Protein: Putative membrane protein
Organism: Salmonella enterica I
Amino acid sequence: MINWQNAFRRGILLADAKITPPERRAIVTRLEALSAQIPAQVRPVYQIWHDGQALQLALSAERQRYSKLQQTSDSELDALRQQQQALQTQLDLTTRKLESLTDIERQLSTRKPAGNYNADTPHTNDKTRDV
């Protein structure tokens, strides 16, 4: 049979051990169930131990939360890097196309016009004669 002394002794011995949070929680829960049997003169020591265990459990929960946030952030960063790479590729392609069009436009603008034909100047054959 487990009494409060054995449970408390076990809890104290395992307090600094590398136990998992569920194991730590089970020890705390077991002692909480037996806490009514703990004498008043031992209760301050029990309370200090209990508070320390509660802090250990809170720290463990925060570490787990931080780890999940870190994984989420890493995933989001990877997605943003991939998106940036795709956008950079698209920008490079568009830049090459624009440069090609600029070269074509430059080549067309440097060509000499064929003959002296000017579409804005009226031709002498197009004039009507007054009779």
In short: The chain has one domain: 4-107. The chain has a mean pLDDT of 88.
